[in-house]
User: Fold these one by one.
Assistant:
Number 1:
Amino acid sequence: MSSHPIFRYYTASTLDGYLADPDDSLDWLLTQPIDEGGAMNYTEFIADIGAMVMGWTTYRWLLENEVSDGKPWPYDIPCFVFTHREITPIADTISVVTGDPGSKRDALVAAAGGKDIWIVGGGDLAAQFADARMLDEIVVSFAPVTLGEGRPLFPRRYDLELVDTARNRAFVCARYAVVGPRPRVAS
Ligand SMILES: NC(=O)c1ccc[n+]([C@@H]2O[C@H](COP(=O)([O-])OP(=O)(O)OC[C@H]3O[C@@H](n4cnc5c(N)ncnc54)[C@H](OP(=O)(O)O)[C@@H]3O)[C@@H](O)[C@H]2O)c1
């Protein structure tokens, strides 16, 4: 294991590599059985996390689905929302940022306070972090469903190393180390 902070993309996906429906529904995910104390569970994961990162669509999903009906923002760690929009964050732990992840590295590392950094999604933002050499591992719980279209898990060519696998009820859980961009080879 490398030294802190580790940049971790921890997510769930359909078998065919989507994070969400084209209309951002997570119905296919939230209806699956999962053991909250089982393999690669969220509680163990979040204990090592000091700061989190997400794109605009993911932030909007949280506002519409987790913060509605007067519920508070569900995270107390610093959160960086990447967007080009001028928005007023819903909590004072949220920073609104734009541009290359590399330009935010120092701020992210400082905010994480020696702990790891969670790249929540989406997939293109996670890939931007990889391109900036700010992605160490990808942990995916694959649900037993295909959608054929939607928000992509990781829309780039990269080599990964499979480090660990496990089953958590309906999910196949896999931990990968990020190796690097995969060049195109002419056939
Ligand atoms: N399955 C899961 O466990 C899981 C995990 C995470 C997310 N999700 C879901 O998956 C979907 C992901 O949506 P998405 O693919 O659209 O990705 P996203 O990263 O959530 O949002 C993409 C948007 O973020 C902004 N953005 C990205 N990079 C930026 C940068 N470098 N600088 C400034 N702004 C930047 C842009 O929005 P603007 O230019 O419009 O500001 C871009 O259109 C959401 O529905 C989310 O709820 C599911």
Number 2:
Amino acid sequence: MAIKIYGSFRSPFVMAVALAVYEKEQEFELLMMNIKSPEYMNNFNPFGKIPSYQDEDITLFESRAIMRYVATKFEGQGAPLLGSTFSEQALCNQWLEVNGHSFTPAIVEMAFSKADTESSKLAFEKFEKVLDVYEARLSVSKYLAGDSYTLADLAHTPLFHIFMAVSDDEKKKCLTSRPHLHAWIQDISSRPAWKKVTERPENTFYKPRTESQ
Ligand SMILES: N[C@@H](CCC(=O)N[C@@H](CS)C(=O)NCC(=O)O)C(=O)O
């Protein structure tokens, strides 16, 4: 059975799973169902969320679990993704947790806060504190887990892509003013597998602004 990803490219988590599949040089079908239907909730994700993943061996939900599965299943193909040493593997897991528990909530809270309010200011400050942690890490390490690109880096690409696409130059300064962070975002966004994701015909939601990035 071909790999099936359920969801829409409006979701950064769906894009992250698609990116992991492409990094492993696999193809997939992107399918959408009514995610609150009994059929979807009983067979794919009882929480009624996207993405879900299916291949001949397994049906899975939760994007980071799916990415780990894909990286392990296709270990010998494409980019390694899990870290090349025992320490890198541990750091990859650590930074994937950071992605899930610190980075994603901070960027989502900022994106959903009402513009020019006290809560949007607080959300932005909170996001900047998270970015400071990334800047410090990336000033001593090429990638989050060490010398090689892993799932920890990959998990960030879609959310930064969306942030860059929907923000004006002033807002983007929180990225461009942190040189190591900015160079890393450019690096992880220039991978051929990411280009393949952005060039999928279903990817119509976040068009990059034309201003300088
Ligand atoms: N932790 C989940 C998050 C999934 C998630 O929140 N997906 C959103 C789209 S970005 C969704 O399905 N929202 C629909 C809903 O909550 O009804 C993952 O990483 O897969």
